[in-house]
Amino acid sequence: MNGIKIGNKTSRLPIIQGGMGVGVSMHSLAGAVAKEGGIGIISTADIGYQESDFLSEPRKANLRAIGQELSRARKIAPDGILGFNIMVALSDYNEIVKECVRQKADLIISGAGLPIDLPQYVIGTDTKIAPIVSSARAFKLLSKRWIKKYNYVPDMIVIEGPKAGGHLGYKKEELDSPECSLEHTTMEIVALVRQLEESTKKRIPVIAAGGIFDGNDIAHFLNLGADGVQLASRFVATEECDASQLYKMSYINATESDIAIIDSPVGMPGRAIRNAFINRMQKTKEPITRCYNCIKTCHVKDAPYCITKALIDAVRGDLNNGLFFCGSNAGRIHEITTVPKLMASLMSEAENTLSKAV
């Protein structure tokens, strides 16, 4: 089973740990995953929330924290592949991308909107870029623009299906559509990517994401033509995850019926664990006393609540006031493990499944 090639580095395993904000995937988790041979991803969403000046100057705090978190992750995995997840919807998107490149991140994965001008920031650098897409149409539109405007072919493609956690690139009515399933979209995009590889002579890894739970899922998507997978929720329930113990226990205690689709102030549907906060927000709005200017598409006057505050409350373990994003399979997680044990288990399951298929 091959790893994933990013520039002049290749991961030992075909596993990417998905970026989870606010503060869920920081240096500890990303570093541990990279050390074990996967690709570790730090979320830039309000990455500086622990900085002393975050409340007064969130932009400065976030930009400063990028270098700090990457440096700490590199100490854990000096030779590993480490990158950042950056939401296109972030108000300071351009500045955050520039800082990640300046800090020499190996990889930038970018979604929550199409990163149509992302190549301009990395041309001439060693940082590689991967857009997150949810349809063949989005892939064709984006790759065509990158090539036409920047003569830049994507370094990797992440396909995020409707079973992912957090913000979703679908309308609510599309979440259960067979045509939007990760399987269907993966097969469509793999075929298009292989054509693009042939015409550009560049290898483009395809990564399947959203609802990947175990080694059987990994084997399934590798058999569909993907080069690797991205998992997020499974990594929350690890000792190395940067979130609080109460955050992790919210996953352990969740059942399938606790997982809900919500309306986010960002303007997208999202998947989260139902709790007192979500129940309140279905009935009333929460007064916003401070705006962090985090998301371009959030309008404070109309927003039902402040998503930054809700996510910070969550990562700190406030079970009644936090917003706990999760993937569709969070209810299947029943214990806290370690990153090495989890990754070894995933790969063992995947290898067994693949060997039986031969």
Automatic annotation (TrEMBL):
<keyword id="KW-0560">Oxidoreductase</keyword>
<dbReference type="InterPro" id="IPR004136">
    <property type="entry name" value="NMO"/>
</dbReference>
<keyword id="KW-0503">Monooxygenase</keyword>
<protein>
    <recommendedName>
        <fullName>Probable nitronate monooxygenase</fullName>
    </recommendedName>
</protein>
<keyword id="KW-0288">FMN</keyword>
<keyword id="KW-0285">Flavoprotein</keyword>
<comment type="function">
    <text>Nitronate monooxygenase that uses molecular oxygen to catalyze the oxidative denitrification of alkyl nitronates. Acts on propionate 3-nitronate (P3N), the presumed physiological substrate. Probably functions in the detoxification of P3N, a metabolic poison produced by plants and fungi as a defense mechanism.</text>
</comment>
<dbReference type="Pfam" id="PF03060">
    <property type="entry name" value="NMO"/>
</dbReference>
<dbReference type="InterPro" id="IPR013785">
    <property type="entry name" value="Aldolase_TIM"/>
</dbReference>
<dbReference type="GO" id="GO:0018580">
    <property type="term" value="F:nitronate monooxygenase activity"/>
</dbReference>
